[in-house]
Design a protein that fits this description.
The structure is a homodimer of 306-residue chains. The first copy, chain A, contains 9 helices and 15 strands. Chain A binds a DNA duplex (30 and 30 nucleotides) through helix 3.
DNA sequence: ACCATCTTTTCACCAAATGAAAAGATCGAG
DNA sequence: CTCGATCTTTTCATTTGGTGAAAAGATGGT
């Protein structure tokens, strides 16, 4: 039922002026050309070519068919070229998903660079703190915190990262320094709101897990709200290093509980690039991944004090 | 390389919303659908469908491809229907070839009937006394005198016919009646001009062949010129019975040399329908052949006196 | 955790496509 | 008119590639 190939064959036969010539052009035996034309004629129930061993002319039906088929074939050829071009010159829209804080703080500043490098591309950056289904929402690339495990997804680590319990020097001046996770229950802890997770902070030291249900005067689903709260000396927050790295460096925030690994969710708080596992990764996706890897390379491991 | 089938498959998958559904629709296994879509994606080098076991969405390339493919497929479908229609409702031009005299005297009067029976058809009647190559000249049907022998042609006898040496009663009153072919050399013989044949009349009686080189005051390549000459008493002509049948009947011409078979060419002077030998005879050709056979049925054997 | 339904892989099987070669056709040249 | 070059068409043996069944893997709802 390979009608399209037969159409192209028919076209070549007409152009070449003989079955054999067409066969030589495309490298198949005259017998195959003969059978192809026959199959086409049979499927249409009409004779397309008047042929003897020396002459070849179109029947009326053949002329009609040829005239109608030529634009169709060139249309298809153009379509294939256009599709193929997508893998050479990126075009269209790239839909990216990230969590709000990471998208705002890390992605947003870098996107203009990416877009100016690829004028044919648009980016649709979707921000939400609930994970989206890549297929459902037609997400090309998602940036997620923590390793995801699904056989239909491809994972690649973008940057290492962890979370740090921290507070401002002003707050620490007014309050006792927490030395063990349990001490945090006496502190004003600024917690992230999620409809899926309780405000529980988990700590790991020497292979021993400690879970603390913390609470405080400020809860928010906006990551930066908590950071600002901590900076202003309101309380203690558990924030990712990619967010508060500069604050730790310049001393406006101080990391607490050294020696403890801390997290509100899982202990792997690195950022991962997540895409669907497919045979043909589109160029735009590949370019975006490459861009991200390069752009975050010098942040491969956010400086984490002590 | 059956790309067209793959395109249709892709369309059905999108419409059906799943590979399995498309498979059930067209009666193939899910495995085949899977392989078909894969082959299409591979040939394009692009992923068209985002698919998990529960969801199926189009990629951007898939959307583009779908949009471009739909008109193409319906175009092809329409084309096939149109071609198929040719075998139901005859349409287009039927090119017929015949010798001048037969075309003028026999075909021309019957054509209006044929055309009014098939309003969609046109007839292009080519008249010439030299045989044409059916393929070269794109002749659909030729009406020829005498049997042709070629493996690429289909022959069918339309009407029996022979040639008769004849003259008008007036001429015979002024001249001695020829009794043997040799007597004709003393007569004014009206001969047919052909650049391929000498004006030689051949006679057969009891298996014995006599050839006479005849001559006279009128030679022409117009068949009816000779007939009119004979009618006017100018001389003796060798004319086909389909032409002078009525003249013989009403006595305006008299057949000479009874018992002799006469011919200027071969001895088979019947009229044959000649077409190319093809697998799919087009409807218009078949209709014309049927029409001719029916129209000439009551002339199956032109009345030949004595 | 199970179940229904989907996609994907695997495998064995068979039909359909292929080329080589012969046969048939056609035309021009010697 | 025969021969030879070049087609088309047929024949035949071979093999590739497509096929479905069935298993395996994946997914979402109950």
């Amino acid at each position: 039922m390979d009608t399209l190939a037969h159409m192209q064959l028919f076209l070549r036969v007409v152009q070449g002026g003989s079955l054999s010539a067409a066969g030589r052009q495309i490298g198949v035996s005259p017998a195959s050309v003969f059978r192809g034309i026959n199959a086409l004629e049979d499927s249409l129930g009409v004779r397309l070519l008047n042929r003897t061993s020396r002459k070849l002319t179109l029947t009326e039906a053949g002329q009609l068919y040829l005239a109608r088929i030529e634009p169709i074939l060139s249309e298809i050829e153009g379509l294939n070229a256009e599709i193929g071009q997508l893998q050479v010159t990126p075009r269209g829209t790239l839909r990216v998903h990230a969590r709000m804080s990471f998208g705002n703080r890390q992605l947003a500043p870098r996107l203009p660079d990416f877009l100016s490098q690829h004028p044919g591309l648009c980016v649709d950056l979707r921000l939400s703190d609930r994970p989206l289904d890549l297929v459902d929402e037609n997400i090309d690339v998602a940036l997620r915190v923590g390793e995801v495990n699904s056989p239909s997804l491809m994972i690649r680590k973008l940057v290492s990262s962890r979370r740090v319990v921290c507070a401002s020097p002003a707050y620490l001046a007014r309050n006792p320094l927490p030395e063990r996770p349990e001490d945090l229950t006496e502190h004003n802890c600024l917690t992230f709101y999620s409809e899926f997770n309780q405000p529980i902070w988990r700590f790991m030291k020497d292979g021993e897990l400690t879970e603390c249900r913390v609470r405080g005067s400020l809860q928010s689903d906006g990551g930066d709200v908590l950071r600002l709260g901590a900076l202003k000396g309101l309380g203690i927050a558990l924030l990712p290093t990619w967010n508060i790295g500069p604050d730790l460096e310049d001393g406006s925030l101080v990391a607490l509980l050294p020696g403890y690994q801390a997290t509100p969710f899982g202990f792997d708080d690195s950022i991962y690039i997540v895409t669907q596992k497919v045979r043909h990764r589109s160029l735009k996706v590949q370019l975006f991944i490459d861009f991200c890897l390069k752009s975050f390379r010098d942040r491969q491991d956010w400086k984490i004090p002590a």
